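Posting this for the archive.
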Amino acid sequence: MNIGLISDTHGFLDPRIPDLFRGVDHILHAGDIGQSALITALEKIAPVTAVLGNNDAGLPFRETEILQLAGRKFLLHHIVEPARPTAHLRDLLAREHPDLVIFGHTHKPADQTHAAIRYLNPGYSGRPRFNLPRTIARLTCTPAEITIEFLPL
């Protein structure tokens, strides 16, 4: 199974994203969406699960989503510090036992493991700003492994 990871679009869908996500089976948006129309555009590529970011007041999404994909449990949440989870996140982790946590907010791609949980951040994909790279990611999930490829925009 192939999964597209995206975060921090801030209302901008880079025109290269449909090609880069071609063939994915599902897309996970880790917040700071910007506008619901962006999710509608992504849904033309594949089914989308999205969560609210700290700039998404009024959008019709939840703060956290838990879902099963490719035989793994994913926890999708915008603001996460893998090495120092908040009490709320620690409770979620203890209750849900996810295999992977997908997050955003930092605008930096990340692939880290803490306490046997893999934490992935696809990076920032909104309009060029700051001096940070703009990236999305693709996960390839097989029964044996999960590989991530960060894709520059």
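DSSP finds three helices and ten strands in the chain. The chain has a mean pLDDT of 96.
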